[in-house]
Amino acid sequence: MSEQSDAHRSHAAITMRLKRADGHLRGIVEMIEAGRPCLDIAQQLHAVEKAIAQAKRTLIQNHLDHCLDDVVGPLVKDDRRSIDEFKEITKYL
To answer: Which pLDDT score is estimated for 41?
Structure first.
């Protein structure tokens, strides 16, 4: 596996998640056009919103875990404490 593909190994899963969300969103448009109840539509919109947020979170965390390390390079444990804490705190976004 190349270094580029290793750094972006989650992209395939993110793409699949976004394609499912896209199909789901198209279904919601059809629901609206068909006059389905607002509660049903809101529930489905919430599901799409969560799927997109998770895709974004995965992308950002993967970027921090791999791309940031490539830029910073190898550091001794004490020197990377700030970077490791930064990466850890982003999990709470």
So the answer is: 97
